[in-house]
Amino acid sequence: MSTALTHAAASQQVAENGRISIEPNRKRLRVFFGGQAVADTTRSVYLFEKGHLPVYYIPRDDVNFDVLEPVDATTTCPWKGKARYWDLVVGDRRAEQSVWGYDEKLADSLDLSAYVAFYWHRMDAWYEEDQQVFVHARDPYVRVDVLPSSRHVAVFVGDTLVADTVRPRLLFETSLPVRYYIPRIDVRSEFFTASDTRTSCPYKGTASYLSFTGSESTDPVEDAAWFYPFTTAEASGIDDHVSFYPDRVRIVVDGTPVEN
Questions:
Q1: How far apart are CA 152 and CA 150, in angstroms?
Q2: Are 43 and 28 spatial neighbours (Cβ–Cβ below 8 Å)?
Q3: Class of the domain covering 13-133
Q4: pLDDT tens, 70-91?
Q5: Would the N or C end of the chain have less CB density within 10 A of its end CB?
Q6: DUF427 domain: which residues (predicted)?
Q7: Are 147 and 167 in contact (CB under 8 A)?
Q8: DSSP class per residue in the chain
Q9: CA 223 vs CA 14, 26, 114, 226: distances in Å
Q10: CA angle at 204 for the pair 95 and 246, rounded to the nearest 5°
């Protein structure tokens, strides 16, 4: 049995240095570049490092090394060891130093020699099973819950009431404040215009933004609110709902202002 398979079959492993750990990702993972899958595996692991987002590490046996060119570049991590790099080359496209791996185990770390990792944004697409994943690897310990509510939520910009509802959807996301999503019909659309801003979240989808255009007594506020035209399955309850930044507007829930 290969080292990678041993790791993937095990539960979480924590390095002696206490800074990193790995845990199996039991979903099929595929990485696409230049129109082809350059990695396809059911044996990847999450690598967790304190202060960083999780990263998928993929068994070398499940990576197409025919499209990897080794380069004379290295970096050193005090917690993982010395990394070497490869360029990814498919046809006339090249992603420089986009793949890295650790050939040797650091004394108080974990043995990562059976794996390589890819820089996320240098790839064309990532899939878990047949669902595309955006922005970064999904943390298995992050949960998103969308619940219908009868709380009274009012939103003000200055003294101008811009949204008022008793049927919000409340979004609870691990380690983040509660977000109040208001039905579009309960938002005073005459005060808002579409913004060019877009952001993406691996747990919710790609957000579009709305700017407050101002009123007789209130100045404009850029990107005061956002919404998801299309959501992931986990966040499907916020379709056609709008949420507001509590540091750019004033949100009052059941008579109590929401803190920034």
A1: 6
A2: no
A3: mainly beta
A4: 999 999 999 999 999 999 999 9
A5: N
A6: 30-120, 154-247
A7: no
A8: --HHHHHHHS--EE-TTSSEEEEE--S-EEEEETTEEEEEES--EEEEETTS--EEEEEGGGB-GGGEEEEEEEEEETTTEEEEEEEEEETTEEEEEEEEEESS--TTS---TTEEEE-GGGSSEEEETTEEE-SSPPPTT--EEEEE----EEEEETTEEEEEES--EEEEETTS--EEEEEGGGB-GGGEEEEEEEEEETTTEEEEEEEE---SSS--EEEEEEE-SSB-GGGGGGTTEEEE-TTTSEEEETTEEPP-
A9: 42, 38, 45, 7
A10: 115
Rounded to a whole number of angstroms, the CA Rg of the chain reads 23
Report the predicted TM-score, pTM, of the whole model to 2 decimal places.
Answer: 0.83
Q: What's the token pair of residue 145?
A: 């819950």
What is the phi/psi pair of residue 22, to 5°? -125, 155
Q: Which range has the worst mean pLDDT, 2-16, 195-209, 244-258?
A: 2-16
Residue type, 82: K
Name residue 42's amino acid. T
Q: In what side-by-side order are the strands of the sheet with 68-77?
A: 13-14, 20-24, 45-49, 55-59, 115-118, 93-102, 81-90, 68-77
Token digits of residue 203: 């747990």
**Structure tokens given for 213:** 């255009």
Q: Where in the chain is the domain with CATH 2.170.150.40?
A: 13-133, 144-257
pLDDT of 188 above 50:
yes
